[in-house]
Amino acid sequence: MEHETTLRSDAQRNRERILEVALAELTRAADAPLSAIAKKAGVGQGTFYRNFPNREALVLEVYRYEMQQVADSAAQLLGTRAPDQALREWMDRLAQFAMAKAGLADALRNAAGKYGSLSQLGHGPVSRALTLLLDANEEAGTIRPGLTPDDFVLAIAGLWQLDPHSDWQPRATRLLDLVMDGLRAGASGAGRPETVESETGGSEPGGSETGGTPPGAE
């Protein structure tokens, strides 16, 4: 039993290593030789083709795997960060994915032509991750209520217009900061100063009637 578990673990590591190398190589060149990907991943041809019988299967799995990685990171971020910080950091991860997807455009286009639409690959996990993040932020009062995953996707659609071969990071950061500002507008608790009692008994939000100590600034 222990031997079988070890074999399964080794097989999983091989598969993940192939996907990591394939993402890098296919982003650089859509027609990167499969033999070169296998060699850089440190696996034999037999192992490679047992996992991915052809180029299209590899490309589609790279796409699905990357989307799953992005989706999984939502819960991880919410476990270690405030909801709005988790959402903003997740947006950066999504931007990285968007650029990888753009770099794989030709390979994905060819694969989609043979296997159908890409729309279902990973859409479910990412939509669920977005729901998790948006619900956590709405409950915390850090974004406006009633936002849906579709609203969010439409708001960040500009990411897919950036050239992945350019200096895209500053532009993506600016775009996502603007989107985050928009999500916060109308939030029930974001940035609202709390009213505190002054030593004289008056109502003093942070020393005046209009300001206060922002949440998290203590």
Describe this protein's structure.
- With 218 residues, this protein is mainly α.
- It is 64% helix and 2% strand.
- It has nine helices and two strands; from the N terminus they run H-H-H-H-H-H-H-H-H-E-E.
- The chain has helices at 2-28, 34-41, 45-51, 55-78, 83-103, 105-115, 123-140, 149-155, 168-184, and strands at residues 196-197, 203-204.
- Strands 1-2 form a two-stranded antiparallel ribbon.
- Strand 1 (196-197) and strand 2 (203-204) form a beta hairpin.
- Helix 4 (55-78) packs antiparallel against helix 5.
- Mean pLDDT is 80; it is low at 115-121 and 190-218.
Order of strands across the widest beta sheet? 1-2
Low-confidence stretches: 115-121, 190-218
Distance between the termini: 53 Å
Strand count, sense and barrel status of the largest sheet are: 2 strands, antiparallel
The helix/strand order is HHHHHHHHHEE
Shape: globular
Q: Structural class per helix/strand content?
A: mainly alpha
- Note the beta-strand portion: under 5%
What share of residues is helical? 55-70%
Radius of gyration: 23 Å
Tally of alpha and pi helices: 9
Number of strands: 2
